[in-house]
C-alpha cells in the first residue's frame, strides 16, 4: 500500500475550502478592514506606528511600535474613540487599549561603514607618521585604510 499525496491545489482554493484556513483568512480580512478604518482616523505620521491587534467585546487593542507613539495616541484617545464610534464597525467601542511592541526583525548594526576620500586618507596617514604613541598611530592608520579608492596609503 503506497502513500499517494493528494493533488496540489491553488492557495486561493485552500483558503476558501479548508475550514481552519478559512476561519484564519476571514479573521485576517476583518483585521485588515478594521486597520483601514483606523488609518482613516489617525494622523498620517501615526499610521505606520499603530496597528489593530484585536477587537472584541467593545475593546479595541492597538499595538504601537514604541512608547513615544503610545503616549501621543493616549493623549488623543478620547478624540479617536469618538471618531471611531461614528463608524458602523466600531459602534459599540467602549475603550481603547495600547500595547507597546517594538518592531522585530530590524537589526541595527553596531558599527557603521567608514568611507573617506583618498585625500583625507593621505592626510590621516601623514599625521599618523608623525605620532609617537603606537596605539594612536595604529588607530590613525586603520582609519586611513578606509579610503574610497580601496587602496591603503601606507601600501604605496
From TrEMBL:
InterPro entries: DciA-like. Pfam families: DciA. This is RNA-binding protein. It comes from Pseudomonas japonica.
Amino acid at each position: 500500500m503506497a502513500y499517494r499525496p493528494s493533488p496540489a491545489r491553488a492557495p486561493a482554493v485552500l483558503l476558501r475550502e479548508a475550514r481552519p484556513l478559512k476561519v484564519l483568512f476571514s479573521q485576517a480580512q476583518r483585521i485588515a478592514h478594521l486597520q483601514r478604518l483606523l488609518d482613516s482616523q489617525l494622523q498620517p505620521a501615526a499610521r505606520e506606528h499603530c496597528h489593530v491587534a484585536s477587537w472584541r467585546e467593545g475593546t479595541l487593542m492597538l499595538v504601537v511600535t514604541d512608547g513615544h507613539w503610545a503616549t501621543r495616541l493616549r493623549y488623543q484617545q478620547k478624540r479617536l474613540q469618538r471618531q471611531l464610534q461614528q463608524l458602523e464597525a466600531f459602534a459599540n467601542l467602549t475603550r481603547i487599549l495600547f500595547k507597546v511592541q517594538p518592531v522585530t526583525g530590524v537589526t541595527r548594526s553596531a558599527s557603521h561603514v567608514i568611507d573617506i576620500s583618498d585625500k583625507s586618507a593621505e592626510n590621516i596617514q601623514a599625521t599618523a607618521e608623525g605620532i609617537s604613541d603606537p596605539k594612536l598611530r595604529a588607530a590613525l592608520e586603520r582609519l586611513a585604510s578606509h579610503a574610497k579608492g580601496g587602496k591603503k596609503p601606507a601600501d604605496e
